[in-house]
Amino acid sequence: MSLPPALRASVTPPELELIACQQLVEIIPLIPMEKTAFIAGAYGPLRPPHRTRIPIWMALNLKQKKKCHIIAPEWLSVEFLEAKIKQETTQAEFTKLPFRFAEISRVLLDGASDDLQNPDKLRTLLQDLREARQAKARAGLESLEHSTLGLSNLSAMEINEIRPFFIQAMAVLKQLHVPASQ
């Protein structure tokens, strides 16, 4: 999202993607590999054709070298996303999604689209879901009160996008609010 410099106080989308790459994803290794220790922890051993869970950053590195196939998370499917879009457009509250779904889906679609079923349709559905959730967030911010705000089930990327606007809006509302006792 393109923001003016004054509003770029929060974490950038690439930084959020980097953080999301610490999440574990399931892979099918194509080569055997012993347990390997990293700063973040030890992963492995890899024994084809048995599935194993490793961080996304490691899976993408192995995928790039053609040493594994990445298994998409269950929520990264056409059926799941279609159901979530339907819920999002028919219910008042935000639907429950993985906290880092936007970042993880983008990283996997960019780095392992050949391992995903129907990646073009997934991109379209993710964009539709994003637009539906953004519209709902905008509507919620329009009815903002200084004392309470309920926006549960937002993802990390969505929180990051509205944070600058929210902070400024709350500062203005706080200045405008005069307690009844004064």
From TrEMBL:
DNA replication complex GINS protein PSF2 N-terminal domain boundaries: 12-71
Main subcellular localisation: nucleus
Keyword Nucleus part of the UniProt annotation: yes
Record note on quaternary structure: Component of the GINS complex.
One GO term (biological process): double-strand break repair via break-induced replication
The protein, known as: DNA replication complex GINS protein PSF2
Cellular location(s): Nucleus
Family, as annotated: Belongs to the GINS2/PSF2 family.
Domain GINS subunit per the UniProt entry, residue ranges: 75-176
One annotated Gene Ontology cellular component of this protein: GINS complex
